[in-house]
Amino acid sequence: MAIERVGFIGLGIMGGPMAANLLRAGFALTVWNRTPAKAEPLAELGAAVAGSPAEVASRSGVTFTCVTASRDVEEVVLGPGGVIEGAAPGSIVVDCSTVAPATARLLHARLAERGIGFLDAPVSGGDVGAKAGTLAIMAGGDPAVFERALPALQAMGKTIVHVGPAGAGQVVKLCNQVAGGLNLLAMAEAISLCRRSGVDPAKMLEVVSAGAAGSWMLQHLGPRAVAGDFAPGFMVDLMQKDLGLVLDAAHETHTPLPGTALVRQLFEMLQARDRGRDGTQAIVEALRLLAGEA
């Protein structure tokens, strides 16, 4: 049966544009956010605003969540007034947050007891991809549940892959953060060397981004870093949360990740200077500190 009514909980930098794309795709949308003002732009576009996560779920065949951390998603899904209290048997919950794989497995088990499907489907692509509807979405859970939720996922993403059972989506997202963090460091080091060698880093980015060393970070965040634009598409504080999950998983699996540990320490330098709400492109400032330039 086609799903026509969807819900969205968590309307931040990523969740707000993702929810708007669901509306544009023709889904009847109900939203909730801890800070009610963030729901107002979606209400103006035609979304219904609910008074609780449970109310969102009661109106939706698929309920999406996109919140900050494991404790937050557990609260909105399993807590008082949470999704589990309103979701009907046969409905689906899709968590697009980045949380611990163990949290995803817990949610899957608890919702399954009520006959509710669950996918952990974290996303990648930043605020640019969220607005454009071109996110990469890595989904873990039952394949049949994934197929039912796919039309809604396609309203928000371009590359959507079912990667395994519950928790697998979060594992793949942590791998994404490993690669993303190291690409950020590569970007920062390239910019640092270019500047200190007296060459225009904007020109360097133009040509290097088009070659074999090109990356999303170089193309999208490099120019902002060079211009001194540190407004967040994805905040340092949130990347640090994710990298903490990565290193926890590395510890559990005895996986050495020396590069990731270094990236986390560089972001720690920024947090120590109250720059945790800057965008992750601010890693270039950590390199400036190491070079004695700030």
Structure description:
This protein is α/β, with parallel strands linked by helices and 294 residues long. Helices cover 53% and strands 14% of the residues. The protein contains 14 helices and nine strands. Strands 1, 2, 3, 4, 5, 6, 7, 8 and 9 form a nine-stranded mixed sheet that branches. β1, α1 and β2 form a beta-alpha-beta unit. α9 packs across α11. It is globular. The mean pLDDT is 96.
How would the blueprint of this fold be written?
Blueprint: E1 5-9, H1 15-24, E2 28-32, H2 40-45, E3 48-49, H3 53-58, E4 62-65, H4 70-78, H5 83-86, E5 92-95, H6 101-112, E6 117-120, E7 123-124, H7 126-132, E8 135-141, H8 143-154, E9 157-164, H9 168-196, H10 201-208, H11 216-226, H12 236-253, H13 258-272, H14 283-290
Parallel strand pairs: 1-2, 1-4, 2-3, 4-5, 5-6, 8-9
Antiparallel strand pairs: 6-8, 7-8
Helix pairs in contact: 1-7, 9-11, 9-12, 9-13, 9-14, 10-11, 12-13, 13-14
Overall pLDDT level: 96
Number of helices: 14
Q: Give the helix proportion (percent range).
A: 40-55%
- Rg, Å, rounded: 20 Å
Order of helices and strands: EHEHEHEHHEHEEHEHEHHHHHH
Low-pLDDT residue spans = none
In percent, how much strand structure appears in the residues? 5-15%
**What about the largest sheet?**
9 strands, mixed
Form type: globular
User: Which structural category fits the helices and strands?
Assistant: alpha/beta
Query: What's the β-strand tally?
Result: 9
Gap between N and C termini, in Å? 59 Å
